[in-house]
């Protein structure tokens, strides 16, 4: 198996052998081809640096990226040639120390997301269209008719002769030379983050990763694993072991499950690790990785799911820091404006596919022309929408002081959210009873959920603690 962390690529054998690549920076794609002594593996980082494993040895080179291009997909062939697909500009082919650049057609204005080898040896690139490398040039491929070639996230060519394409919440099956395109809506919430296929005597089996969940498709039925994953970045279906490997922001997870079309066969008879163990500067980390792979995997149950049974909206803790402006009545009866700040702790609790409850409590501050307000806030309301965007209506109890006087009342907010509720825009009306008088205040604020950022800081400190001891 070939898997990457931020700085290196690890190649791990079932029997315990391991190799680590030369140092990279921000690995963007990994790939492998062949088996045994003929195995070829490669990785490319965000700067175009490539690490290639062939004949049990690593070599490095750098793809000559065109300015503004970013590596997004990678392929290798048995000769050791490396194919780095840029997002918008070109395909870069490396053989030995030399590189050849094949620019995308001028009419191609989209972005590439993935690549796949066809059974006739043609390399295709998929994304906002399908491109093919033929005769030393990149051309638009007629293999996938429009509009089925739009918004593709990945591709896999089955030994059965079928080409599987992952589109925007749809799995497509095409047999080259036939006009029909099969479409199977993917019953997962959020966007599509990857696919992996396996061919069996009973037919093809496809694993599809959504925003935080994975489903298995056997050509007829989608079945969802009863586990949650955080932003999958890589997925591999190991049919020989009836295992699923998912690389995501929390690490690498191995999941065992039972599917009637998959029969565990183990490694082929006589299979050996094709290289000598080379752990570089991280023997302890490599030992932990091998131990993790040798430990019993997580066990998941498959549950049939249809497009009308998409899982409930995800739950997410939040610590929202909001900044903005306010306008309201001053103690002397005039209307004034000023600065406003909120710090609210809570989280969304999914109850239906696009519906969640959003409880919050915290502190609200405003300063209108010198009159400062300090309030305790607590409330709960419905949030409707997907993981890309949503809208909430949240009434809150409010109590505290305004210009030194006690007040109590209600704040009602309409909140628009984006990117898994990470960002929000809030428009509020606040009514307080202060000193026997009614005070009204309007607020417009932008906020960010800093909880994930705190998690990133914690991981960075842990990462520094591990690698800072070298």
Q: Regions with pLDDT < 50 over 5+ consecutive residues? A: none
Give the averaged pLDDT, no decimals.
Answer: 83
Major beta sheet summary:
8 strands, antiparallel, barrel
Which word captures the global form?
Answer: elongated
Strand content: over 45%
Looking at the overall shape, the CATH architecture of the largest domain is 7 Propeller
Query: Roughly how many Å is the radius of gyration?
Result: 27 Å
Distance between the termini: 26 Å
> Any idea what the CATH superfamily of the largest domain is called?
YVTN repeat-like/Quinoprotein amine dehydrogenase
Number of helices: 2
The percent of residues in helical segments reads under 10%
Sheet with the most strands: spatial strand order: 29-30-31-32-33-34-35-36
What is the structural class?
mainly beta
Kindly give the count of domains.
Answer: 2
Describe the overall structure.
Helices cover 6% and strands 55% of the residues. The chain is elongated, with a radius of gyration of 27 Å. Strands 29-30-31-32-33-34-35-36 form an 8-stranded antiparallel β-barrel. The chain has a 5-stranded antiparallel sheet with strand order 20-21-22-23-28, with no helix packed on it. A 4-stranded antiparallel sheet has the order 4-5-6-7, with no helix packed on it. By secondary structure, it is mainly β.
């Amino acid at each position: 198996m070939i898997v990457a962390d931020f700085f290196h690529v690890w190649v791990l054998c079932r029997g315990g052998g391991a190799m680590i690549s030369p140092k990279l920076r921000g690995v963007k794609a990994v790939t492998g081809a062949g088996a045994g002594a003929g195995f070829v593996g490669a990785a490319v980082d965000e700067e175009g640096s490539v690490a290639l494993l062939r004949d049990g040895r690593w070599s490095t080179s750098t793809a000559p990226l065109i300015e503004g291009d970013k590596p997004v997909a990678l392929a290798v062939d048995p000769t050791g040639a490396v194919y780095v697909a840029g997002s918008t500009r070109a395909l870069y082919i490396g053989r030995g120390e030399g590189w050849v650049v094949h620019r995308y057609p001028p009419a191609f204005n989209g972005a590439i997301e993935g690549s796949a080898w066809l059974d006739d040896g043609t390399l295709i690139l998929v994304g906002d269209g399908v491109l093919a490398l033929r005769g030393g040039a990149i051309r638009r491929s007629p293999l996938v008719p429009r509009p089925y070639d739009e918004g593709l996230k990945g591709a896999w060519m089955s030994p059965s002769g079928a080409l599987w394409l992952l589109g925007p919440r749809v799995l497509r099956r095409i047999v080259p030379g036939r006009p029909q395109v099969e479409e199977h809506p993917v019953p997962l919430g959020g966007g599509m983050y990857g696919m992996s296929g396996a061919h069996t005597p009973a037919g093809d089996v496809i694993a599809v990763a959504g925003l935080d969940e994975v489903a298995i498709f056997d050509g007829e039925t989608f079945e969802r694993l009863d586990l949650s994953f955080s932003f999958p970045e890589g997925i591999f279906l190991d049919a020989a072991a009836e295992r699923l490997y998912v690389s995501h922001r929390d690490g690498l997870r191995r999941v065992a499950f039972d599917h009637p079309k998959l029969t565990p066969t183990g490694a082929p008879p006589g299979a050996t690790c094709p290289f000598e163990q080379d752990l570089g500067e991280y023997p302890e980390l490599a030992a932990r990785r091998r131990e993790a792979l040798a430990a019993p995997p997580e066990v998941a149950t498959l549950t049939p799911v249809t497009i009308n049974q998409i899982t409930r909206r995800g739950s997410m803790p939040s610590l929202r820091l909001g900044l903005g402006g306010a306008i309201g009545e001053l103690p002397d009866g005039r209307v004034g404006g000023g600065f406003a700040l909120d710090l609210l702790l809570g989280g969304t609790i999914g109850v239906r596919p696009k519906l969640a409850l959003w409880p919050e409590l915290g502190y609200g501050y405003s300063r209108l022309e010198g009159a400062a307000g300090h309030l305790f806030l607590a409330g709960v309301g419905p949030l409707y929408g997907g993981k890309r965007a949503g809208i909430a209506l949240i009434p809150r109890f409010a109590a505290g002081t305004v210009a030194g006087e006690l007040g109590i009342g209600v704040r009602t907010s309409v909140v628009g959210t984006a990117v898994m509720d990470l960002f929000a825009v809030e428009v509020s009306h606040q009514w307080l009873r202060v000193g026997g008088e009614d005070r009204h205040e309007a607020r417009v604020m932008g906020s960010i959920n800093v909880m994930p950022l705190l998690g990133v800081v914690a991981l960075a400190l842990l990462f520094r603690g591990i690698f800072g001891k070298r």
